[in-house]
Amino acid sequence: MCGMNANLTCPAIHSVSLPITAFIGGGNMSSALIGGLLTSGAELANLRVVEPFAEQRARLQQRFPGAQILEAPNAALRNAQAVVWAVKPQQFAQAAADCRAHLGDALHVSIMAGVRCRAIERQTGAQRMVRTMPNTPALIGQGITGLFASAQASEADRALADALLAPAGRRVWVQREDLLDAVTAVSGSGPAYAFYLAEAMTRAGEELGLSGAQARELALATLAGAAALAQGSSEPLATLRANVTSKGGTTAAALGVFDAADMQTTIIRALHAADQRAKELGDALEAG
Ligand SMILES: NC(=O)C1=CN([C@@H]2O[C@H](COP(=O)(O)OP(=O)(O)OC[C@H]3O[C@@H](n4cnc5c(N)ncnc54)[C@H](OP(=O)(O)O)[C@@H]3O)[C@@H](O)[C@H]2O)C=CC1
Ligand SMILES: O=C(O)[C@@H]1CCC=N1
Question: Cα-atom radius of gyration of the chain, to the nearest Å?
């Protein structure tokens, strides 16, 4: 049951050699995931990446020597045991049409937001699928990934998907496919919310007289420290917040401004918008 529980560890992919694995799309997220595999010690000789953009291909070839970087799908994909769909949702139908004739019996792993198993099956003929939603801290192995397996995926398929994503950080398996949209709203898009908050804290720090570098360091160390404190604590988040908030003090003054602007409701509405957008991306593919 290694694939089903975030707390169990799967065999690391580097302890066995990387099975023949094809990434379709070699952009930001692919690079982060492949970089993680490399850092964890995986041999990249079995890696193929299809990436039509020449400059990006050159970057991939330089960063991942030994991997086969392809301009277009070809026979090198035939024996892939895992195919990782890493194009934008809007690019998937075309990418799948281009690849289909070259793919054999592979596990299909998707990192695409919104794109449902039904659409992947329709576009590729695949039945064994694991949809995943990583996030950009994968770049430094501190991401978190939500995963969902189709009914036809075997335990070995789940373990393979889990191992492919393990270098990116923690994994959380969900039991319903629609929950991946919630994962996307919370953690897939989440780093952007953290950066948004950090940007505002940094700007305010500068307005209050700190240098840009000082304000950035204070803001980022505070967000990282607060997250680490909360992760190591069993206290409710509201209690941790209350512990900072002295009666009549500075924090209360700041939180009063947040509350007057109904910030929590705004943030909750924002995440609902992200969830809704994931559903729209999925609907568009099913309609197309
Ligand atoms: N960025 C993030 O934080 C996260 C992204 N994701 C998901 O990851 C996926 C990729 O996102 P991201 O890496 O940011 O996007 P990128 O645009 O950086 O990467 C997609 C890559 O695929 C290439 N591509 C386009 N068409 C094809 C094709 N037909 N065959 C092969 N490759 C093709 C693109 O080339 P070109 O630029 O020339 O179009 C581009 O290099 C998306 O589905 C997204 O939902 C998931 C979690 C987090
Ligand atoms: O913005 C997006 O659509 C992708 C999915 C999650 C993060 N980036």
Answer: 21
Look over the chain and give the mean of its residue pLDDT values, rounded to a whole number: 94
Q: What percent of the chain has pLDDT over 70?
A: 94
Neighbours of 155 (CB within 10 A): 12
Question: Quick one: pLDDT at residue 1?
Answer: 39
Q: What is the largest CA-CA distance in the chain?
A: 69
Of 160, 180, 200, the residue at which a domain comes to its end is 180
| Dihedral sign (CA 193, 196, 197, 198) | positive
* 287 inside domain: no
Of the three residues 146, 180, 214, the one that is the final residue of a domain is: 180
Write out the residue range of the structural domain in which residue 270 sits: 190-274
pLDDT at 200: 98
- Please give the C-alpha separations between residue 150 and each of 60, 110, 188, 210, 265, in angstroms, as whole numbers: 31, 11, 20, 52, 34
Cα(188) to centroid(ligand 2), Å? 6
Same domain? 111 vs 209 = no
> Is any ligand 1 atom within 6 A of the Cβ of residue 282?
no
Q: Which of 128, 82, 131 is nearest to 103 (CA)?
A: 82
Same domain flag for 78 and 47: yes
Question: Best substitution site from 30, 132, 189 to test ligand 2's pocket, by max atoms within 8 Å of Cβ?
Answer: 189
The per-residue pLDDT for range 85-114, each reduced to its tens digit, is 999 999 999 999 999 999 999 999 999 999
ipTM of the complex: 0.98
Percent of the chain with pLDDT over 90: 91
